[in-house]
Design goal:
Elements lengths: L10 E5 L4 H12 L3 E6 L2 H10 L7 E4 L5 H15 L4 E4 L8
Parallel strand pairs: 1-2, 1-4, 2-3
Length: 99
Amino acid sequence: MTKLKSLENKVVWITGASSGLGKALARECALQGAQVVLTSRCYDELEAVRIGLLKPEQHLSIAADITNEAQIRDAHEKVLACKGRIDWLINNAGLSQRA
């Protein structure tokens, strides 16, 4: 098994990135030198996360609902247009039901 030596200049796309585990993963990936693509439903929340990351200018916020195939296809096209590739995809988005 090959060990990952660095996230330097890797493009890491994280869904569910506006809070919780996704936000924490975004911070860690940015600290390790990745170009982070943040996705969740709320653009303003994503931007708040992006601005708080190390080197915010190299990261990208894209609002999309993962349950909407058209929005995800559009988001994928935007990532490729802006970053040229995706090295890692972390599918962290999900739904919770509180009762």
